[in-house]
Amino acid sequence: MTPDEFRRAGHELIDFIADYLDTAPPEPGGPQNERSVATRPVQPTVESGDVRAALPEHPPTAPEPWEDVMADVERIIVPGITNWQHPGWFAYFPANISYPSVLGELLSAGLGVQGMSWVTSPACTEVETLMLDWMQELLGLPAAFHSTSESGGGVIQGSASEATLVAILSARHRATGGAVNADGATTKLVAYATSQSHSSIEKGLRIAGIGTDRIRTIAHDENFAMRPDALRQTIDADLAAGLTPFFANSNHGSTSSMAFDPSPEIGAICRDHDIWFHVDSAMAGIAALVPEFRWVNDGIQLADSYCTNPHKWMGVNFDCTTYWTTDRASLLGALSILPEYLRSAAAESGEVIDYRDWQIPLGRRFRALKLWFTIRMDGVDSFQERIRRDVALTQDLALRAASDDRFSVVAPHPLNLVCLALTGGDEATDELIERANASGTALFTRTVLDGRSVLRVSIGSHTTRAQHVDAAWELITRDV
Amino acid sequence: MTPDEFRRAGHELIDFIADYLDTAPPEPGGPQNERSVATRPVQPTVESGDVRAALPEHPPTAPEPWEDVMADVERIIVPGITNWQHPGWFAYFPANISYPSVLGELLSAGLGVQGMSWVTSPACTEVETLMLDWMQELLGLPAAFHSTSESGGGVIQGSASEATLVAILSARHRATGGAVNADGATTKLVAYATSQSHSSIEKGLRIAGIGTDRIRTIAHDENFAMRPDALRQTIDADLAAGLTPFFANSNHGSTSSMAFDPSPEIGAICRDHDIWFHVDSAMAGIAALVPEFRWVNDGIQLADSYCTNPHKWMGVNFDCTTYWTTDRASLLGALSILPEYLRSAAAESGEVIDYRDWQIPLGRRFRALKLWFTIRMDGVDSFQERIRRDVALTQDLALRAASDDRFSVVAPHPLNLVCLALTGGDEATDELIERANASGTALFTRTVLDGRSVLRVSIGSHTTRAQHVDAAWELITRDV
């Protein structure tokens, strides 16, 4: 592909994306532009194997023109994707992207640099550190997370799963005084979390050699929040058995029901026993951009590590998880390895950050660009407006459900997620979810809370407005 | 940012990238376009802290226009990056990008879908599976890696480090019969690799709870290749000590010197002892796109897992590591966790692949697009031409060095890397590297081979031509 072919194709693709993400009709009240995500079903109608069958089984032997590739994108790829940017997106979690963020990802791709060490691309490291400091300020996080603090700092991880794993590895290193790097002994280490914790907690622990025999599922209360008394009792029993409590996870906004564990109490217990205290606020933490929602971070002053995802509610393209720790030394102890071919005077001076030692992989993209672009060009006011709107729409929906005796609201709904069940029982709820999702106009996720089937309504797509929530309610309540 | 602002900014950014990556002067023999990477120093001249100091310490309170952001990109970011796409790039490894690949990354960003499960975006999974099958065919890999094979298959990982970790976790699961998921016991497991293995081997093992006490550094021969006799002896000693050999790594093109371990022999030993046999060909494996270089994969018929990086020599933007295993069951056993909110009929039918269970994180981008775009639009011929050219340039440089008595060629150089030392000793070599890198016209990496300081010359940037290698040789030989 020549530079001029790239220019032409690139301009076309930019226009395609502009249209795809634009859900406002060109003329107020008129029809949508036909490439808009809003004109498509949320969930594609393809069956397993359909997409592959539409493509050649074998690679081409000669280069093909852009036109053919783009035609396949429109004919095969777009009808085969689930439209996470759809205004009827109430499933899983919001995975918002934004125009500035797409530009940031494009620039990162076009520069093609590696940020594994400061010296391999200084701007990649320094903009990232600055962005973590900006986010610390915007979210009102503890000063101990700032890059200029004595022992803390932040980094962009690819996902909350990786942030969790890094936290667990830091905890494992500290609890063993670093011995784990030589002896690999992990079988006495015990971790604590509720059943409402994200699957990445168990996955990360398993990867780190902490099996289910050493993962304690701490009882939760009627709000799906951890019971501190149960935590304390379990720790005491483990200590009495000669085990080593080393890691506790606190959910600030759990995946299934947006439950908040009581971090002030959990953190205090962890301090008493030198247990690494991790706060997982992957989805909800971004709400702290809004002053009246800063309570989502209550108790994180006690945390050894914390993560939240600009790639969910803030509109920065996946992958962009912001992770902070107050114990940089344990992180570096867990993950640093310095072969000859990565040595540099800059690294050895201790004056620079080499982010490869803050993460699982070695290589890394210039992900800070998309965060920088989004904060600068969309601006904080736009994030606040979105979050306030989503929460208001959710509260409104919860009110409607609460006053409709066909429905139960089965968990607290302090932010942008409401969990509903039909009073008619699980089977009716499951059928409702299936029927609603088959409509193509909205998509919901099913979960189970304390054994009960639940319809989760997550409101947070950047294109969702009141009329889409109204339509979703109409869809949910039709024929039940 | 409005759709129209995005269009305008996007077109400008596309043009900027077209110019940045274009190293051919607009008029033959005329001056470069001034935005070309070729007009810049390879290594930026910034000191630690310079980039950050040029940016505001605090986030803006109101949105800023695209013009201001782009001005900062040109004024602060570009002069602060190391130019991995420079024609004078002889450092680390080639990290080639290509125009089609940038477009693929852009489309992935613009669609904003999540490919964690088939159902969360069917096309994301199915195109990926097809791309792994295309690559299996293009590289001439074993049929047991194909998605239609009985027990194998492939996946895109973010990096070779993650591929290695996934291999180790699969091996750990198989060696313990899955017991590790419950008991976390890893202290009897022993892993084998040479000192020439990439740092990600030790890092991955450490993460998985295999400490340095259980990592055997197997002796290498004068070509920096593993000695199978030493491997066999070490395994025997470990078995006699009641330990469990579980994982061996074979380098096909090591990072420091492009050494090839003898996989036919290593693989046979691993088969004898049911040791997971992983082949790490992160850089060199792509050479198998060229028929006469298919030998780079000799012995991988015996491998349980294998990885190579399209994001190095093939021109697909980082991150794109292709990873295959012949033992899908161990991989899924190691990494599957299925919470209620991720259940789907499609997944439970067993008819679809849920790639979240093939990797460390949960979330995943639509990375297959950039591989698909690059194969279709640049084409296999272009990859073969680049690889043949790079190898020829490297052989030519090695000949020049071999016939110059100031230099020693200190390792075999079968592909695109040549390792040089000054006969004058380590201090002279170190000074030479420092002086050459300070020139700004080329960048090299220093390594150490069997205690000796070495100048690595890695030839593989997509913009490097004979005149750049000539200039590099002139630079290296000046004043020595």
Task: State the main characteristics.
seven-stranded mixed beta sheet; 17 helices; Aspartate Aminotransferase, domain 2; five-stranded mixed beta sheet; homodimer; 13% strand; alpha/beta; dopa decarboxylase, N-terminal domain; globular; Aspartate Aminotransferase, domain 1; 480 residues; 12 strands; 40% helix
Description:
2 copies of one chain form a homodimer. With 480 residues, chain A is α/β, with parallel strands linked by helices. In chain A, 40% of the residues lie in helices and 13% in strands. Chain A is built from 17 helices and 12 strands. Chain A has helices spanning 3-21, 50-53, 66-77, 99-111, 122-138, 160-175, 180-183, 199-207, 228-240, 263-273, 310-314, 328-335, 345-349, 368-377, 380-402, 426-438, 466-477; strands at residues 89-90, 153-157, 189-194, 215-218, 244-251, 276-280, 305-308, 321-325, 407-409, 417-422, 443-449, 452-458. In chain A, the strands form 2 sheets. The first copy, chain A, has a 7-stranded mixed sheet, sandwiched between helices. In chain A, strands 1-11-12-10-9 form a 5-stranded mixed sheet. In chain A, helix 4 packs antiparallel against helix 14 and helix 6 crosses helix 12. The termini of chain A are far apart. The relative contact order of chain A is 0.14. Chains A and B meet through helix 1, helix 2, helix 3, helix 4 and helix 5 of A and helix 1, helix 2, helix 3, helix 4 and helix 5 of B.
Low-confidence stretches of chain A: none
What is the structural class of chain A?
A: alpha/beta
Number of spatially distinct domains of chain A: 3
Percentage of residues in strands of chain A? 5-15%
- Please identify, by name, the CATH architecture of the largest domain in chain A: 3-Layer(aba) Sandwich
Task: Walk across the major sheet of chain A and give the strand order.
Answer: 2-8-7-6-5-3-4
**What kind of sheet is the major sheet of chain A?**
7 strands, mixed
Number of helices of chain A: 17
How large is the radius of gyration of chain A?
A: 24 Å
Determine the CATH topology of the largest domain in chain A: Aspartate Aminotransferase, domain 2
